[in-house]
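ok new one. same drill as before - structure tokens go in, u give me an amino acid for every spot. 166 of them this time. try not to just spam alanines like last time pls lmao
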């Protein structure tokens, strides 16, 4: 497989993760609307709606993060860019991507172990007993995708060099 083919496969996978995130967000929006209606109009709250929202939001945030990174959709403050110049931005981005990837790899190891423990011991939420390994697994996948994107951006940046930099 060529590097272009691998890039297309990775982008499709990140699109799938972002689509999952969007679908879960839509379902959560419907759930919250329904729960508010039931609670305040019918005086009959939905059992476990807060737990569903908590687990769902972990899926929404973590599945969307790798695609947002690839698309450059994160908030970026460029207060010092004009003062530090191209080399400063280049080195700053290398350091930030390296440190970010390193920290994500440490966190991935921890959340993966936590997901395995939660699955093995059957950990569930308090009210409606949703398996919590789902949230840990979503967090692990999202951080893994984020680390892959940061690492690939770092490699591309190093190969391209400073002359082709922003």
């Amino acid at each position: 497989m060529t590097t272009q083919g691998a890039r297309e496969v990775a982008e499709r996978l990140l699109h799938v993760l972002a689509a999952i995130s969007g679908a879960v967000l839509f379902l959560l929006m419907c759930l919250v609307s329904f729960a508010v209606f039931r609670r305040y109009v019918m005086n009959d709250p939905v059992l476990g709606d807060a737990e569903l929202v908590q687990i769902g939001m972990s899926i929404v945030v973590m599945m969307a993060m790798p695609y947002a990174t690839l698309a450059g959709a994160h908030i970026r403050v460029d207060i010092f860019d004009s003062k530090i110049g191209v080399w400063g931005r280049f080195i700053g981005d290398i350091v930030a991507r390296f440190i970010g990837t390193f920290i994500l790899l440490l966190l991935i190891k921890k959340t993966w172990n936590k997901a395995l423990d939660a699955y093995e011991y059957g950990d569930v939420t308090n009210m409606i007993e949703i398996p919590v390994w789902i949230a840990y697994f979503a967090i692990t996948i999202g951080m893994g995708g984020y680390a892959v994107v940061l690492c690939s951006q770092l490699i591309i940046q190093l190969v391209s060099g400073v002359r082709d930099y922003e």
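Helices lie at 3-40, 49-71, 81-121, 133-160. and btw The longest helix spans residues 81-121.
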